[in-house]
TrEMBL record:
Residues 17-195 form the Metallo-beta-lactamase domain. It comes from the Bacteria. This is MBL fold metallo-hydrolase. Counteracts the endogenous Pycsar antiviral defense system. Phosphodiesterase that enables metal-dependent hydrolysis of host cyclic nucleotide Pycsar defense signals such as cCMP and cUMP. Pfam families: Lactamase_B. It catalyses: 3',5'-cyclic UMP + H2O = UMP + H(+); 3',5'-cyclic CMP + H2O = CMP + H(+). SUPFAM superfamilies: Metallo-hydrolase/oxidoreductase.
Amino acid sequence: MDNADLKIEAFSLGPLQTNCYLLSRPGENKGIVIDPGMNPKPLLKRVADMEIEAIVLTHAHFDHIGGVDELRKLKGCPVYLHDAEAEWLTNPKYNGSARWPELGAPILTEPAEYALDQGQELKLLGLVFKVFHTPGHSPGSVSLLYGSHLFGGDVLFRLSVGRTDLPGGDQQELLDSIHDKLFKLPDETIVYPGHGPKTTIGYERENNPYV
């Protein structure tokens, strides 16, 4: 498992500056997209000539799914999402876009084609990604691991953690997800969060005041 196998490009999208990640293998013109957020034009421009194998959602809050419909229709690619949020793509009330109309129109798209689950090994780009179910910020939050790269959505941030005051959020569940799953990973594991700068498991274990 060689981290050099993976090229990671980040895009900060939409009014909440949601981190979207484009993963590909060096020298290949195929990728997967994690959390295509709102106002996805920079992402769509970048992938115009690429084959997109899949859209993987760490969870289905509106700021992480705003670009799903456009990207899926443009590239004809399937969407992966945990079943706990299966209805969220089709319902603006569940995904939160109906709650903050000042940030944009209600967001709805077709359901995900595939479900994610704890312990699943997801084979994409010829690589194997391990899926962790990490609820707390939302009931279907997942984190995706390849080598020392962890794409964690809104579970763990640099010196912070995901909010738990939205529907389906649970503070104890969030802390359990972090301690029982993420903090068992090696210190050098790089965390690519849903917002803000990347960090490492070791740094957060030692310095994060919320855990």
